[in-house]
Design brief:
The chain is an alpha+beta fold. It is 46% helix and 22% strand.
């Protein structure tokens, strides 16, 4: 059976991805969104045409235990956490790239033992 496994270039790519993973700081899952909303008061300005909605409100939404959780965050907290959300997205991208690299290697190796 022919020798299989990652090439030198693939090992270098894996090492670069590992560095990206190691450099990550704090991470928060989910999304940070800004919303404007209507209230329940029928005579409020938010029901006018055109609507003058309340807000902006910063919301953190994530899934935990099969349930969607939403938390309102003050602006200063949302700004502080923004980098943590960005880190989570970068980590997911790096992990996806590492998975795709590993799948490509495994599929190529599979061709040698079919």
């Amino acid at each position: 059976m022919a020798k299989t496994g990652p090439t030198a270039a693939e090992r270098q790519r894996q090492a670069a991805l590992a560095r990206r993973l190691a450099e990550a700081g704090f991470v928060l899952p989910g999304s940070l969104i800004t919303r404007h909303m209507r209230c329940g008061k029928t005579n409020c300005r938010c029901h006018d045409e055109p609507a003058n909605l309340h807000g902006p409100y910063r919301q953190w939404t994530r899934t935990a235990g099969g349930k969607t959780l939403t938390r309102l965050l003050p602006d200063e907290v949302a700004e502080r956490y923004q980098g943590w959300f960005d880190n989570a997205h970068r980590l997911r991208d790096a992990i996806t790239e590492l998975e795709n690299l590993s799948i490509a290697i495994a599929e190529r190796d599979r061709q040698t033992y079919r």
